[in-house]
Amino acid sequence: MTAFESLLAAKAFMHKSEVPLKSGVEPSRTVLCVDDELNVLAALRRLLQRHGYEVLLANSGEEGLQR
Questions:
Q1: What InterPro entries does the record tag this protein with (predicted)?
Q2: Domain-located, residue 5
Q3: pLDDT in tens, 3-49
Q4: Could you give the 3-state DSSP secondary structure of residue 16?
Q5: What pLDDT sits at residue 38?
Q6: Is 2 inside a domain boundary?
Q7: Residue scoring higher pLDDT (43 or 1)
Q8: Does some domain include residue 7?
């Protein structure tokens, strides 16, 4: 069985005018995907990149913590 968990900051669901930002600073749109299945990582990367995210990949939790 495969499980998928998505952890997004609450700010991701706020209207842009509600998110406090420093003047002239763009919010980060970087996502770290961790999975030991390369095909899952590839699919997640394609999906997230289509939505404008920069995607970092890791094959293990240890590798993810190093990123």
A1: CheY-like_superfamily (IPR011006), Sig_transdc_resp-reg_receiver (IPR001789)
A2: no
A3: 666 665 555 555 555 555 566 656 678 989 999 999 999 999 998 88
A4: helix
A5: 93
A6: no
A7: 43
A8: no
Range of the domain at 61: 27-67
Q: Which residues, including other chains, have CB under 8 Å from residue 32's CB and lie 6 or more apart?
A: 56, 57, 58, 64, 67
What is the rounded CA–CA span in Å between residue 14 and residue 16? 6
Is pLDDT at 66 greater than 80 in this prediction?
yes
| The dihedral formed by the CA atoms of 40, 27, 16 and 31, expressed in degrees to the nearest 10 | 10
Domains in the chain: how many in total? 1
Q: For residue 26, what are its two tokens? A: 């763009």
DSSP secondary-structure letter at 45?
A: H
63 contacts: CB under 8 Å, gap ≥ 6: 34
DSSP 40: H
